[in-house]
Every structure is written in C-alpha cells, then in structure tokens.
Design a protein that fits this description.
The complex is a heterodimer of chains A (about 600) and B (about 160).
Chain A: H1 11-20, H2 33-37, H3 58-62, H4 64-81, E1 111-112, E2 115-116, E3 162-167, E4 173-181, E5 190-197, E6 201-208, E7 219-227, E8 236-239, H5 274-282, E9 285-287, H6 304-310, H7 315-320, E10 324-330, E11 336-343, H8 346-358, E12 362-365, E13 370-374, E14 376-380, E15 384-388, H9 395-408, E16 451-452, E17 480-481, E18 484-485, E19 498-505, E20 509-516, E21 522-523, H10 533-539, E22 544-548, E23 551-557, E24 561-568, E25 571-579
Parallel strand pairs in A: 6-8, 16-21
Antiparallel strand pairs in A: 1-2, 3-4, 4-7, 5-6, 9-10, 10-11, 11-15, 12-13, 13-14, 14-15, 17-18, 19-20, 20-25, 22-23, 23-24, 24-25
Chain B: H1 3-28, H2 31-47, H3 57-78, H4 98-108, H5 112-123, H6 128-135, H7 139-164
Helix pairs in contact in B: 1-2, 1-3, 2-3, 3-6, 5-7, 6-7
Classes of the chains: A alpha+beta (about 600), B mainly alpha (about 160).
C-alpha cells in the first residue's frame, strides 16, 4: 500500500484510489442488536445496520459476483489440474499395541508408580526454542513441566513428534530433534522429554509445558540429548503417542536397529557415502550442526519456520513424518544444501504427489522410485521419501546426492528411522500413528456436530459423479432453532452460524453460498472454523492457497462446488460452500436457511 | 414482490452496500448522515424495485443514494443552524489515512455543484448524463462544473504540495 502523498497525484487518481482501494476506508461497525437478532431483513426493511461489512464473509465483501467468478475460475483451474482425490488424513483409529511400560522395568530405572520422578531419566531441554536445532549441549536438569507435581506421567503423557538425531546400541544417550511449540506469545515453550525404560523398550515423549499443543502453527525445532539409565542395547525405541494436535499426522515411530555400523544410524552422515561426503568437502561444504566427526548433526534449515507454515512437501514434513533434516553448508556462511530423508506412508505419498502434480512439478519415473523436480528435488520410494533443496546452485551436486541417497538407503530402516520400517510388535507396517504403549485412547481434535458435505458423498472429489437429486448439505431438524440453522442444543442464538444465500448467475446457473461460522460444524474430513492454517493443511492436504484482498483463503473444489476457508487472525474464520449449480430445493429464499419455516 | 426481484435487490445491496454507504458519506459529509441517507434511499428503491430496469439497477441505486443525500442535506439546512455542525467539523472517521482526509478537505471546500459532480463522476463512476439527471442540470453544466472543480483541486493540491515540500 503506497502512502505516497496525495499532493503528487491527480484528483482523478485520488478519487479512483478511494473508489477501488477498500483498505483506505474504515467501515466502523455500526451493526445494531436488532439487526443481529432477527432473520435476514426483507429488502423493504433494509437498514444501514444490515450493511455492516465487518459481519460479511469475504465473498460478500468482494461482491458475490466476484466470488462466483472466482469460484468458477478455481473450479476450472483445479479441474484442469486434474487433482487426485483429496487424501486428507483421517483421525487415526486406535490400535492397541503391546505396552512397553507394562513390562517389568529394568533394574535401576527410576519408575515410581508408573511415573518418572523428576529428571532422573529426563533431560530438560532448553526452554528457549529457536527455529533451528540447538547443538546438544549441557542441559539444565530441573524438573520438566507437564504436571502439577513436577513429574511426567508416561502412562498418560503424549508427545510432540520427534526423531533420532544420533544414537547407538552401546550408548546410553540418544540425541533427538523434535517438533515443538515455539516460544511465541501465549504459546508455551517446549520444555523437555520424558523417558520410560524397561527390559525390552525405551519410550520417549517430547513434552510441552503448554496446556495443550494449541500453537502448532508456530512450529519450531528443538533438540537435546536424552540420558538413558542403561545403553539402549537391543531394546526397541518407541515414540510415545502423539498428542492431539499431532494426531492427524503419522506417528514417527523410531526404532534403532541393534548392531548398526558407523556412521551412527539415524545420522546425517549416514545418509551419504564417503565419496559423496568427500565431494561435499571439495565444494567446501560441511555438515552443519556440530563439529565434524562428532557423529551427529541435525539442523533444520533456516527456512524451517516458514516451511512449516507455508510449504508442502518441505523439510518440515520430512521431520514431522519421522525423518531427518540435515544441512550441508558453506562453513560460516549462509548458503547450504539441506536434505531431508525419512519414512512416509502411502497416504502421505499420495497427498504429496498430488500436490506436486498440481503445482506443476516435473515428474520423472526412475527405476523403482519417482523423482519430482520443481522447488528442489524430491524422491519417493517404497515407504520413504527424500528431499534436497540446493540453494547453492550446485544443481548436479544435489541431484547426484539424491540419487546416491536413494541407492544407498532403499529403505528408511537402513538408517534407523522410519514409520514404515518400524519393528514395533503389533504395529502395522504403515507406522500406525496410534501406537500407544499405555493403551489409552488417542484423543481426537475433530469436533462433533453437523457435517457439511455434498450430498453425503464425503469430501469433495474432482470428477466424482453426483446424482441429480443430491442435496448439498446435510441437516437435521434438531439443528434448527428459531428458524435458524444452529447446532443441536443451542438455544441462545445471537448470530446465524450458517448463512445461506443463493445467486442467479447466467454463466453458472443457480449458485448457493453457505457460510459457516460455527466451529462445531465441520466438513466431512473434519475441517472447521477455528482451525489454524497448519491444522487445515494437515486435514485437507490438497487445499489450494490463495490470497485475495489481503486475506488468506484455502479452497477445495470438485464438480459440485467449492469450499472456501477464509482466515482471519490466523485461524479459519468462515467456511463458504459455493455450489457450482446443483438444484437448490431446500432454500426458501435468499438470506434464509433450510430451517426457516420448517 | 417476487423472490426473484428480492434476490436481485438483496444481491445488489450486498455487493455494493459498502460503496453506496461511502458515496452517501462523501456527499453528506459525515457517516451518520450518510447512513441515514443510505437507509432512506434503500427503502425508497425497495418500494419501487419491480419498476426498476435491472440493467440500470446499480446506477439507479447510486442516483437514489445521491438524491437521498442531497435531500438530507437540504433538510439539515432547514433546521436550526446551531443543531447542525459545520461540515468541516464533522468527524471523518471513515477514511483511514490522513492523506485521504486532507484530500477530501479540499473536495469539501469546493462549491457544492463542483463537489457533487466530482464525487458522482470520479467516485460513484456515473457518466455525465446520469450525473446531469441526478443533479437536474444539463450534461454541459456537468462538464463545466467538473472542469472547474478539477482545476481548483489541482491548484489546491499544488499549493499544498509546495507547502509540504
């Protein structure tokens, strides 16, 4: 926005600026209680209060014709893109698995009625979480947060995702990196890890001090060294159950295979051959994150925070899925070649590849794996994926390294990580995210309530045939109160949770807008008002991001219509269903919902 | 009244309500009068909506808002002077930036005829014929008023620019 002085503009230009630039206006909220309480006013009773734009969804502020045009354009664009069906990650089903904590604890392990006392087995990590992994160092050992008594209860403790940075069967320490809350604003900082050991297993939870992990959009990466009571030996290393905000992503169950030779399993050094490391060295690239030869190095790239928030198929995803992010960079310089390598489920692979296909990345079928070239290089194989982003401009170096990475690590289990390579007894081969040593149910963050759907056909899917008699939205009589569509049991209605409008359009026929502003009404896949951007992207991986009039929106479309998720203040503020032209039978009039008169 | 007519009207107001309010605010000089003028205009138009040609609906609405604004100003002038603040004293809280407020102070200082023509032409985007019908003047007068108003504004802007530099 240029605030250039008006003195050097013509009067015509100044008028035009005021006419076309909404940002130059403050349209104060002058909505009255009367307008808020009653049904949408009859046109003959329009009042200025009914024109309050602050209470209009984006499509109305843009003008419904613009929204319709945008919807049509998006439908066309997405149709041309021939996206695969959205592969939103469903909340995991609980899958009981043997509980390592149910076994007899190993002698010397500090267990007290299932609780870890203070910091005997838990190293408290630096509470100042930076966007990059801090080099494991001497860490404070005060009691970790997480319970009033200052102890962590592994029986109920859930975890943020973490991955092994380094460790070996004969070592009594394991360096880990983890996805954590950022230390921003009201979001709590990540404070520590909890460890439970027994004769056959070691379970680690990355613990947040926050009341809940509600700040997942402010991702940061933390790291530290976990002190074990005894060397890992041939015990299985478990990842504690994911806490609710992470439940919709794969659980990065990490195992360390006994007897893995050096370089240490799960380390960045292990990703590449000695020749490749020598090639890096020839280019004056060093493994970032610690002194050479220390046997560990995991360091998120500087773009970590933005990647986590803005990118798909990025290094952030590699870590979230349980892999490693490593960086080779110019010593004491900013340039680097970040690599990511780790496990990935079939569902995640499908979502990623659909996104890459839609975004125009070049797909190349290799021998037994698939390579994408676009914003960096990505490779997908059977249960693993890898990413390299060569911001040094050493394109061939990165490509060659990726190819060697694929050749040397045909399976993520080869370097010690991997959901799909898990050796956890009872767990599925896909790294079941519900692995739960305690047997407690994994909490779901999906609210209950009315579903917004296209005729009960589930998520919007491109190309899915829909019968003529499809109804656009499921609703039930008990969701009506005083003529308004609301949620069951709600009797205090001050604002419509759903606004229904139709719009005749010569090009597209009958258009239905439904605007949902109530968090208890969800899409079939669980998207709802109040979600953060990160949560929405996890729920609807194929949602397309756009910015219009300074507002961020995400859309998913099919032949039936489009769902538009409008963000304000970092969360979904309204969900608009834009129908592409199906008959609208249940709408009695513009501004009225199906409950009216029903 | 058929739902079809209602739907078109509702959509039109929903789409352009904010712009219409701004127009009324600019013409009346303050937000409160602007809201009243808009309310008056929308009620009047709704009552006669079925007689409105849809293809001219938006210009019709703009002209209705303009007329309601002028009517309101006229009524205000007929009330006691002490009850009506001077235009320049009224809050312009609807404009976000000082530069725009300063610009509209210059617009406000123009003679009524010039100010109205410029607002209707450059803000409401009405053509000269529609402006002429709205103000009950000839298109030639519209052009001459616009010419004079623009010349005055350019001169004022140049003076302000000189002072600023």
């Amino acid at each position: 926005m240029s605030d250039r002085s008006p003195l050097d503009r013509t009067p015509e230009a100044l008028f035009a600026r005021l006419r076309t630039d909404d940002d130059r206006w403050v349209d104060t909220d002058y909505r009255t209680d009367a307008a808020a309480a009653g049904p949408a006013p009859h046109p003959s009773r329009w009042s200025a209060s009914a024109l309050n734009p602050a209470h209009w969804p984006l499509w109305a502020q843009l003008g419904s014709s613009l929204a319709v045009g945008a919807a049509i354009a998006l439908v066309i664009v997405l149709g041309v893109g021939a996206l695969r069906a959205p592969t939103s990650v469903s909340p995991p089903a609980h899958t009981p698995s043997p509980s390592p904590t149910a076994s007899s604890p190993v002698a010397g392990a500090t267990l007290d009625d299932g609780r870890i006392v203070n910091a005997a087995l838990a190293s408290v990590l630096d509470t100042k979480v930076e966007p990059v992994v801090t080099v494991p160092a001497t860490l404070p050992t005060s009691a970790p947060g997480g319970s009033a008594s200052g102890v962590i209860d592994p029986a109920t403790q859930s975890s943020a995702p973490w991955a092994v940075v380094s460790g070996s069967p004969d070592a009594d320490t394991i360096a880990i990196g983890y996805v954590a809350d950022g230390d921003f604003g009201d979001c709590g900082a990540h404070v520590g890890v909890a460890v439970v050991e027994d004769a056959t297993s070691v379970t680690i939870a990355a613990v947040s001090a926050a009341a809940d992990d509600s700040c997942t959009e402010l991702l940061a990466l933390g790291g530290g060294t976990v002190q074990l009571a005894a060397p890992l030996g041939d015990r299985t290393l478990f990842h504690a159950p994911l806490s609710a905000p992470w439940a919709t992503i794969a659980n990065p169950i990490v195992t360390v295979e006994p007897g893995t030779s050096t370089p240490d399993p799960g380390t960045c050094d292990a990703l590449f051959s000695a020749d490749r490391r020598a090639a890096f060295e020839d280019d004056h690239l060093v493994l970032d994150g610690g002194p050479a030869g220390d046997g560990y190095a995991q360091k998120a790239v500087e773009e970590w925070a933005s990647s986590a928030a803005d990118q798909r198929a990025g290094l952030a995803d590699v870590v979230q899925f349980g892999g490693l992010a490593c960086r080779w960079g110019v010593e004491n310089g900013d340039s680097s070649i970040p690599f990511g390598f780790g496990p990935i489920t079939d569902e995640q692979t499908a979502a990623m590849q659909a996104y890459l296909d839609a975004s125009g990345a070049k797909r190349v079928e290799e021998d037994g794996w698939v390579r994408y070239t676009g914003d960096g290089e990505l490779a997908f194989g059977d249960g693993w994926w890898a990413r390299v982003y060569d911001n040094l401009g050493l394109e061939q170096q990165g490509v060659d390294a990726l190819a060697e990475l694929v050749a040397a690590n045909p399976h993520p289990g080869a370097f010690g990580g991997g959901a799909s390579a898990t050796s956890v007894p009872g767990d599925g081969a896909t790294g079941d995210p519900t692995h739960n040593p305690t047997g407690t149910a994994t909490p779901s963050s999906t609210p209950t309530g009315a579903y917004v759907t296209t005729g009960g056909y589930g998520d919007l899917r491109l190309g899915k045939p829909v019968p003529d008699d499809t109804t656009l939205v499921e609703w039930k009589p008990d969701q009506c109160y005083a003529g308004r569509w609301t949620t069951p049991g709600v009797t205090e209605v001050t604002q419509d949770p759903v606004t229904v409008r139709t719009d005749g359009n010569e090009r597209a026929g009958k258009i239905l807008f439904m605007v949902f502003t109530d968090a208890t009404i969800t899409t079939k896949s669980g998207a709802h008002v109040g979600m953060t951007e990160a949560e929405l992207k996890r729920t609807l991986p194929n949602a397309q991001k756009a910015t219009t009039q300074g507002a961020t929106i995400y859309t998913v479309s099919d032949a039936v219509g489009m769902l538009m998720f409008e963000f304000q203040g970092g969360t979904v503020w309204a969900i608009t269903l834009v129908d592409a032209g199906s008959p609208v039978e249940s709408i009695v009039g513009d501004g009225y919902g199906p409950c009216y008169g029903g | 009244m058929s739902w079809g007519a209602d739907a078109q009207y509702t959509r039109l107001v929903a789409e352009h309500g904010t712009a219409l309010l701004r127009l009324a605010v600019l013409l009346t000089g303050n937000r409160f009068d602007g809201e009243d003028a808009l309310q008056d205009a929308l009620v009047k138009v709704a009552a006669s909506w079925t007689r409105t040609r849809p293809t001219k609906a938006l210009p019709y609405l703009k002209r209705a808002v303009a007329n309601a604004s002028f009517d309101l100003i006229r009524r205000r002038r007929e009330t006691a002077v002490e009850e009506v603040p001077e235009r320049a004293q009224l809050e312009r809280g609807f404009l976000r930036y000082e530069q725009d407020v300063a610009f509209f102070a210059l617009v406000d200082a123009l003679p009524d005829g010039q100010r109205r023509v410029l607002i209707l032409r450059y803000f409401a985007d009405l053509d000269d014929r529609a402006i002429a019908e709205t103000l009950d003047i000839t298109p030639e007068t519209v052009r001459s008023q616009a010419h004079r108003g623009l010349a005055k504004l350019r001169a004022d802007l140049a003076v302000t620019a000189g002072g600023a530099s």
